Task: inverse folding
């Protein structure tokens, strides 16, 4: 039986919950468009080795000069790394501006493993998040700085210079938050014990956006819920505020 559901957009906000899971990915960091920091999604972000603040995609990012270890109350703790390098020049700093060029200008290094502990206070259990670690290729030859990204039983081998010397790298771990902290390790995986260079870290919620009030099809609530991974937050595009959503087809399940 078909049902008609009339919902005021301002009153509708659903999120999808499920069991905990985690996935590592690595991709190039070439500038603000690929940094993984998004206004409205990023919970917090910091960059390391300098006190200069950055601004990326509408998100203000404080700089922490260090040296490590660091503890930002209620957000994260960083251990393992021991030193700060306040000035670096690479293809990101060459971009200029107050965004990725600032993030790419300094870093923490040394110690093993480099550990970022995301505090439970900055997450809601059952929601899906992404922790992003930013780095830049340092060595002119591949294989010099092999590392392994680890969280629990999930791990991914990588090379800090996998995209070339002076080119950026973003390692991301996507997971559903539990009731405790989430521990992220970067482990040395090379014979010469060369440590990882950590330029910045960010925590973001995984979100999917409804872009149309249509009952079905791309951008609709029905399709967005169907496509969203477990734990993702469903939100509505601001241009839809005040409009009425009518669901006249089959029921839409808001819990996966």
Result:
């Amino acid at each position: 039986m078909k049902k008609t559901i009339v919902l005021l957009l301002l009153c509708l906000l659903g999120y999808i919950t499920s069991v905990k899971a985690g996935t590592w990915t690595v991709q190039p960091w070439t500038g603000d468009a690929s940094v993984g920091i998004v206004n409205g999604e990023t919970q917090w972000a910091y960059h390391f080795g300098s006190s200069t603040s950055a601004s990326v995609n509408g998100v203000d990012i404080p700089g922490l000069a260090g040296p490590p270890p660091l503890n930002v109350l209620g957000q994260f703790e960083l251990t393992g790394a021991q030193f700060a390098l306040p000035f670096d020049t690479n293809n990101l700093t060459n971009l200029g501006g107050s965004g990725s060029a600032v993030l790419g200008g300094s870093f923490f290094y040394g110690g093993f493993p480099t550990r970022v502990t995301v505090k439970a206070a900055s997450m809601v259990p059952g929601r899906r998040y992404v922790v992003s670690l930013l780095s830049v290729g340092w060595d002119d030859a591949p294989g010099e700085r092999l590392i392994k990204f680890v969280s629990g039983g999930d791990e991914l081998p990588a090379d800090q210079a996998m995209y070339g010397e002076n080119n950026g790298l973003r390692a991301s771990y996507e997971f559903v938050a539990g009731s405790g902290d989430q521990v992220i390790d970067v482990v040395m995986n090379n014979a010469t014990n060369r440590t990882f260079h950590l330029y910045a870290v960010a925590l973001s919620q995984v979100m999917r956006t409804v872009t149309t009030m249509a009952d079905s099809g791309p951008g609709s609530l029905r399709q967005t819920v169907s496509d969203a991974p477990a734990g993702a937050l469903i939100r509505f595009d601001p241009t839809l505020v005040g409009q009425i959503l009518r669901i006249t087809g089959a029921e839409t399940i808001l819990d996966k």
Summary: Helices lie at 100-103, 221-227. The chain has two helices and 20 strands. Residues 1-21 have pLDDT under 50 and may be disordered. The longest helix spans residues 221-227.
